[in-house]
Amino acid sequence: MNWVLFATMMVLAVFGVVAVYSASYFKTDDYWHKQSVWVGIGAVVFVVTSLVDYRWIKWVALPLYLVSIVLVILTYTGLGEEHGGAKCWLRLPGIGTFQPSQLCLIAGIVIIAFFLSTFRKLHPFQKLALVGLMVGGPMALILKQPDFGMTLVWVPAIMAMLFVGGIPKRYMISVVLVGLCLVPLAINFGLKPYQRDRIVSFMDPTINPQGTSWAINQSLIAIGSGGFSGKGFKAPNSMVELGFLPGTTVHTDYIFSAIGEQWGFVGGVVLLGLFSVLLICCLFTAYYAADEFGLLISIGFTAQIFFHIYQNVGMTIALMPITGLPLPLISYGGTFVLMNMFALGLVNSVWVHRRMLPN
Questions:
Q1: Position 200 pLDDT exceeds 60
Q2: What residue numbers bound the domain in which 333 lies?
Q3: Any domain includes 357
Q4: Helix 100-118 vs helix 334-352: angle between axes, to the nearest 10 degrees?
Q5: Quick check: is 271 in a domain?
Q6: CA Rg, the chain, in Å?
Q7: For 75-123, where are the alpha helices, taking DSSP H only?
Q8: What's the DSSP call for residue 190?
Q9: Which residue, among 310, 305, 311, 313, has the nearest Cα to 336 in the 3D structure?
């Protein structure tokens, strides 16, 4: 077992429970208790996944990928639930609500890793075309929900896997240029008006300060007011408690704003330092992987987690537009915690089985 990876993950998860509590203790909903239950379940999932040889997931990669797409499609039916303007949640009788796009991303990374490691001799253009077909459908379905943030996460994860998978640089540069050309089309025709307003507010936060720019301006004020060491745990009359930050998302999307206000610059640096240790452990696992499949899934999950961190922290300090991506292991959310711990369990399985010869 990679005990550094496990310990860092658990420290972050426990800190996440504390952060959720500090951001919602004055509310009637018992978010922190639910989060602690999901962290406990996620820890079990991590250990079980770590002990199972990651190569076995090749046999379920395609079924998992297809099932996840079907679940995303079901969000468009009566089983789907809308939160924050996006119908990206699915309610199943006897199970509850969960976000199938999270599972779809995990399945997508696994199926792409399996494809790239199995069909090494294909021409790079053929690889790009087939990968584009495999990820294009799920991305389009998730964008239509519309969940622009989850759609974006696919891009760095798949690009990192393509780069490590041996796609020549000229092809990678071409993909990037084509993607940049498609950005205006995606913004104007793929997003809803409120999502476009968020991008405009990111470019100029002074536009509509009482409307679309309100959240980002209040986030900057909250983090800035924390100063060097913060106002303290459960500090009274904070921006969070007074409701200046969105009450429905302060424990999810804006959790870093609450952390910055209560623990200040020191707390933010410690948190980002822990994330750095986690990501370095994942990269070391990729380096010592026994085969290309293990290398690719490790790189894919590392890129996925990194982009979640970068986007969530970036949008709270006006470095990135607001997209509603949660902070891994910190933000409230049962599906998100479970999927992240499952992904890290697969990475740890690559480490555990690094000395075994590939089948």
A1: yes
A2: 3-352
A3: no
A4: 20
A5: yes
A6: 20
A7: 100-118
A8: S
A9: 305
Tokens standing for 220?
A: 């900057």
What pTM, to 2 d.p., does this model score?
0.92
The number of angstroms, rounded, from the C-alpha of 327 to the middle of its chain's C-alpha atoms is 7
Other C-beta atoms closer than 10 Å to the C-beta of 52 total 14
Q: How many domains does the chain have?
A: 1
Q: 214-227 as b/e, with b when 16 or more CB fall inside 10 Å?
A: bbbbbbbebbeebe
CB atoms within 10 A of CB 70: 10
Phi-psi region of 245 (alpha: psi -120 to 50; beta: other; left: phi over 0): beta
Tell me the C-alpha to C-alpha distance, in Å, between residue 306 and each of 63, 282, 313. 27, 11, 11
Asked whether residue 165 is domain-assigned, the answer is yes
Q: How far is CA 244 from the centre of its chain?
A: 25
Please state, in angstroms and rounded to a whole number, the distance separating the CA atoms of residues 198 and 195.
Answer: 5
Tokens standing for residue 224: 């800035």
Task: Give the closest residue to 112 by CA, choosing from 129, 136, 135.
Answer: 135
Determine contact, residues 56/69, Cβ cutoff 8 Å: no
Is the predicted pLDDT of residue 359 greater than 70, yes or no? no
Tokens coding 320:
């990135």
Using CA atoms, how far apart are residues 101 and 106, in angstroms rounded to an integer? 9
The verdict on residue 91 lying in a domain is yes
**Three-state secondary structure call for residue 140:** helix
What is the per-residue pLDDT across 105-117, written as a single tens digit (0 to 9) for each?
999 999 999 999 9
Q: What is the amino acid identity at position 318?
A: A
Residue 39, judged by CB atoms within 10 A of its CB (0-12, 13-18, 19+), counts as buried
CA-nearest of 112, 322, 73 to 220 is: 322
Task: Read off the DSSP letter of residue 99.
Answer: -
